[in-house]
Amino acid sequence: MSWLILSLAGLLEIVWALAMKQSQGFTRLMPTVVMLITMAGSFGLLAIAMRSLPLGTAYMVWTGIGAVGAFIVGVWFLDEAISPLRVIAALLIVAGIVTMKAAT
């Protein structure tokens, strides 16, 4: 159950990162509100997952899901540049997540 909760926390991290981008430096109200709510949810779920998962593992997986997810959202929905090096970097993060999961 902790891994599911941690995965949901990571997905909420992607949402709040996108909302932060859409807030245009906190000048738009609704994206800022969405960011704050999903940020609180993400941190709350991370804290719950950390009850039974090691700190390093939980934090690394949470940030990894957020980083790779934000990269994918940026490329897919925001037309951000994609290059072989950026893809390799994202794949290395995924490899780290998988390795950390396997190590616990």
UniProtKB/TrEMBL annotation:
Q: Which terms are listed as keywords in the entry?
A: Cell membrane, Membrane, Transmembrane, Transmembrane helix, Transport
Q: What is its main location?
A: membrane
| Compartment(s) where it occurs, according to its Swiss-Prot or TrEMBL record | Cell membrane
Regarding the membrane, this protein is recorded as: Multi-pass membrane protein
Q: Where are the transmembrane segments?
A: 33-50, 57-78, 84-103
Q: Which family does it belong to?
A: Belongs to the drug/metabolite transporter (DMT) superfamily. Small multidrug resistance (SMR) (TC 2.A.7.1) family. Gdx/SugE subfamily.
Q: From the Swiss-Prot or TrEMBL record, give the protein name.
A: Guanidinium exporter
Q: What is the phylogenetic placement of the source species in the record?
A: Bacteria, Pseudomonadati, Pseudomonadota, Gammaproteobacteria, Oceanospirillales
